[in-house]
Amino acid sequence: MSDVALAEKAVGADDLLTPEQFEAAIRAVGAQRYHDKHVFHKMLHGGKLSKAQVQAWALNRYCYQEAVPRKDAALMARTDDRELRREWIHRLHDHDGLGDEPGGIERWLILTDGLGIDRALVVSKTAALPATRFAVEAYVRFVTEQPLTVAVASSLTELFAPSIHRERISGMLENYSFIGDDVMAYFKRRLTQAPRDADFALDYVKRHASTRAEQDACVAAVQFKCNVLWAQLDALHNAYVEGRIPPGAYVPPG
Amino acid sequence: MSDVALAEKAVGADDLLTPEQFEAAIRAVGAQRYHDKHVFHKMLHGGKLSKAQVQAWALNRYCYQEAVPRKDAALMARTDDRELRREWIHRLHDHDGLGDEPGGIERWLILTDGLGIDRALVVSKTAALPATRFAVEAYVRFVTEQPLTVAVASSLTELFAPSIHRERISGMLENYSFIGDDVMAYFKRRLTQAPRDADFALDYVKRHASTRAEQDACVAAVQFKCNVLWAQLDALHNAYVEGRIPPGAYVPPG
């Protein structure tokens, strides 16, 4: 029986979940829907993609990286809780960099540089799949429009990220001759950043979701976020594995 | 040589296009990118889909139908031009109905009823592909956020709609035993509604796009809208032809 089913068995549909039940329901979403279950992810990590396909992945995924500090700024713009902003701001530092630290987006561009993709094209986002941009911007809107606790909850896919990053580092270094240690810097840094962020956000939603309806909305937010990630891999698979590249989208040089 | 190339040859990149050149550039987008070129569209109209696949199409496409009056209301909310609102409001009448006229969304639900899909499930939108909803909501946001003339331009895919609707009516009636005259009522009505709307919007953007940059933004708006439509068919093809239905999405009974 899944964690969700266990939690549902233990309490009625309107009863407040205990913190443990609530956390189990959130983690169960990842076990079922996180994008490490996607066929494109498995191909990426298993060395089954061509360089052209890895290029398309990195160019598209840049749009997601680029959107993250915007959604974090959107979240900070919505709260008068200074302590929350003081904690959340380090996500902006992580992605945009601060002072001498270039940040995660710059590290992503070192990855796309390493793959031989024109940096101006990556940054323009014009060659990304429309479906990538629709999904990514849906995430920014979600954080802008949903109740604050639910918006925080949508970040909780980071609970599931460290294992995917570890897999990615070893899988990609091992399987692709065109990927070296230097270009994997993004994922190495995220191994320590993501757990810190996820622990804070998980604690926050546990403390602030005070009704069952709010708890359910937080669980649904994690589902929504999994959909955002999954839809990006669906679009990549459709375009660059099945070969149905939509009009105007990136055609890798190979 | 394409219409766009002709237009670009005739004038410099910064020169204002003549109304004829501007219209040609808009129409060229449809010739290249409208979703009647998509493989799923061809399968749909050519009788190559199973009933289950047509069900999935109708359930997902409902999300688009449902969003249209919201984007039209968003557009009306942005203008102090009463004459524009007086014209535009009939799009809301067409979709939502007025008085005894039930409107296009109700006609769409007669289509989904006829296909045997539970109406409450359709209306809930919960079983639609996430990618469908991301694309559709991107359209609503576009109309909410872009300059008014550009927002109007994004409706101009209706220039290309009558032929697709004619094809759809004949193709679907001919090829699917489970589709009758009554359930095609939506498309029959659109044969007269879409051209009226498109003529007005085309005239509007021709009169209001007063710089080359605005004209280019209008052409890009039609490209954007084509992407919104294309991404929906990509997602349907991926899920219901290739069989990679994302977690939580509609599984047709067949």
Describe this structure in words.
The structure is a homodimer of 254-residue chains. With 254 residues, chain A is an all-alpha fold. The first copy, chain A, has one domain (3-241): Up-down Bundle (Heme Oxygenase, Chain A), CATH 1.20.910. Helices cover 70% and strands 0% of the residues of chain A. The first copy, chain A, has helices at residues 3-10, 19-33, 39-45, 51-76, 82-96, 104-114, 119-124, 130-145, 148-153, 161-175, 185-208, 212-241. In chain A, helix 1 (3-10) runs antiparallel to helix 2 (19-33) and helix 4 runs antiparallel to helix 6 (104-114). The longest helix of chain A is centred in the last third of the chain and has 30 residues, at 212-241. The radius of gyration of chain A is 19 Å and the shape is globular. The N and C termini of chain A lie far apart (45 Å). The mean pLDDT of chain A is 92. Chain A binds chain B through residues 32-33, 37, 39, 129-131, 133-135, 137-138, 141, 223-224, 226-228, 230-231, 234-235, 237-239, 242, 244, 246-248, and chain B through 32-33, 37, 39, 129-131, 133-135, 137-138, 141, 223-224, 226-228, 230-231, 234-235, 237-239, 242, 244, 246-248.
Short descriptors:
homodimer; 254 residues; mainly alpha; Heme Oxygenase, Chain A; 12 helices; 70% helix; 0% strand
List the helices and strands and how they pair.
2 copies of one chain form a homodimer.
Chain A: H1 3-10, H2 19-33, H3 39-45, H4 51-76, H5 82-96, H6 104-114, H7 119-124, H8 130-145, H9 148-153, H10 161-175, H11 185-208, H12 212-241
Helix pairs in contact in A: 1-2, 2-12, 4-5, 4-6, 4-8, 4-12, 6-11, 8-12, 10-11
